[in-house]
Specification:
InterPro entries: Diguanylate_Cyclase, GGDEF_dom, Nucleotide_cyclase, Rev_trsase/Diguanyl_cyclase. The chain has 19 helices and five strands. It is α+β, with helices and mostly antiparallel strands. Strands 2-3-1-4-5 form a five-stranded mixed beta sheet, sandwiched between helices. It starts with 11 loop residues before the first helix and ends in a 5-residue tail after the last strand. The structure holds guanosine-5'-triphosphate.
């Protein structure tokens, strides 16, 4: 997730998610104590809301309370970490004892279950009252999640919170479809509390990992949220309809279910691909814009000095290979400072923009016009001759003179520029060619400006 940052506004979802941890875990603790109070005061409805329905076992209530306590953060980080580790250890012991009992047919959990006699008497008369394997696994996952959080292993902690969430979800599905095997001995209240605890545990790590990506305000997060919703709702709804109709119509409906789910998955993949493509397109467009911006001058849109040098190097290699030549023109606006000083910087900028458009119009598409300094421009004339260059340079000089800028040329007369020209036939470096053209330009300035001078070194 490196390089991925939320701004202040975008943290809102993450902060909301983290803000639910305390109230949600608090409600779970309250529920746990209510169940224990039910056993203590023999008020059955507090731990078995539906007569003869499944009850919340006292050991389950203990696990709920301890996990709930571990999830409630205080201000002292060190204290929190110790409490999280201690709570995790307690619940690991409680949940593991139940798992060992189920696997090895032992009875260890009864040694640590409060109100055990009451539980036994209810079991004897055939009432459901024990912590199921699914509940034990759910609490084990929650405890591991809490312990890992205490050790600051946040991503692993988030993973176990996610695993824990699966168990009450399966139970809910069982209750909805009337499939007892799905919920087993997990009462609907235990499932609801387990679900709330798992959501609390997940929310603790809302600022990192998969959950952070899921809550992201960007397109990826939006896709993940909608696909999670649809991905759960659609198959669940179809499954519900299947379960309701299977007993009457049997067989082929199951095939229909499988095919529909497959098509649904394909639809989700296609939707993801469309969005992915859109993101990728935007990214590539951004990259192109950046690459272009790195090589062009922001004021005039002309090629900048960097691109000019890059182009020139390639030209040198090309003319050396083909025994050809290119010509470099360096164009410098005369007394440009005067424009800035008397009419302001904006007017100066306007002159530069108009001049650059004019320069582009004066040459062929293959030639490169660049802004290589403040009021200094260059033109690389590819495959040109001295006569051709003379013609173009004169043309450029005269075109500049013809430029009319309201508020400047009508009062101060024409804008002029001096031009220095040098040739490169592959036997000079670009630095040398620029130096020769600069020397010629200096001469043009010295001789009174508004003229074209050729470097005498390379005729
Ligand atoms: N408006 C504007 N002015 C700029 C920009 N870049 C450089 N300048 C100005 O261009 C002026 C160049 O002045 P000088 O180097 O003295 O040259 P000059 O006044 O044209 O005189 P000569 O070249 O000798 O004819 C300076 O005042 C710079 O501040 C720009 O992007 N916009």
């Amino acid at each position: 997730m490196s390089g991925f940052t939320f701004n202040e506004k975008q943290w809102v979802l993450v902060k909301y998610a983290q803000a639910i941890v305390r109230p949600l875990s608090g409600a779970c603790i309250l529920f746990g104590f209510t169940v224990l109070a039910g056993y203590f005061g023999s008020i059955e409805i507090l731990y078995r809301p539906f007569a003869n329905g499944p009850a919340t076992n006292p050991l389950t209530a203990m696990c709920i309370i301890v996990i709930g306590l571990g999830l409630r953060k205080r201000n002292d980080k060190k204290q929190d970490e110790w409490l999280q580790k201690a709570c995790a250890l307690f619940v690991i012991i409680m949940a593991s004892s139940k798992i060992i009992d189920v696997i090895f047919s032992t009875n260890i959990s009864s040694l640590i279950t409060p109100f055990q006699e009451q539980v036994m008497s209810e079991l004897e008369v055939g009432k459901s009252n024990s912590m199921g394997l699914n509940s034990a696994i759910m609490f084990l996952c929650l405890a591991i999640c809490l312990g890992l959080y205490g050790f600051q292993r946040l991503i692993s902690s988030q993973f176990f919170a996610f695993l824990a969430l699966a168990l009450p979800t399966i139970s809910f599905t069982g209750y909805a479809y009337n499939l007892e095997k799905f919920h087993g001995q997990m009462s609907i209240l235990t499932a609801t509390t387990g679900f709330a605890l798992a959501i609390s545990a997940l929310s603790m790590t809302a600022h990192i990992g998969g959950l952070r990506a899921f809550l992201s305000p960007y397109l990826g997060g939006t896709i993940a949220r909608s696909q999670t919703f649809l991905g759960y709702m659609v198959p669940s709804l179809l499954g519900f309809l299947l379960v309701k109709t299977l007993s009457s119509r049997e067989g082929s409906l199951f095939g229909l279910f499988v095919v529909t789910i497959c098509w649904f998955m394909i639809l989700m993949i296609i939707l993801s691909a469309i969005y992915q493509e859109k993101i990728d397109h935007e990214r590539r467009k951004g990259e192109q814009l950046l690459a272009k911006a790195a090589l062009s001058d922001p004021l005039t849109g002309l090629s900048n000095r960097r691109n000019f040098l890059k182009f020139a190097q390639e030209e040198i290699r090309r003319v050396a290979r083909n025994e050809n030549e290119f010509w470099l023109l360096i164009i410098d606006v005369d007394h440009f400072k005067k424009i800035n000083d008397s009419a302001g910087h904006d007017m100066g900028d306007q002159v530069l923009v108009i001049l650059s458009e004019d320069l582009k119009k004066s040459v062929r598409d293959v030639d490169l016009v660049s802004r290589i300094g403040g009021e200094e421009f260059s033109i690389i004339l590819v495959d040109s001759s001295k006569q051709g260059t003379e013609r173009v340079a004169e043309n450029v000089r005269m075109n500049i003179q013809k430029i009319r800028i309201e508020g400047w040329t009508d009062i101060n007369g024409p804008i002029t520029a001096s031009i220095g020209c040098a040739k490169n036939d592959g036997s000079y470096t670009m630095e040398e060619t620029i130096k020769f053209a600069d020397e010629a330009l200096y001469k043009a300035k010295e001789n009174g400006r508004n003229q074209v001078v050729f470097a005498d070194k390379i005729e």
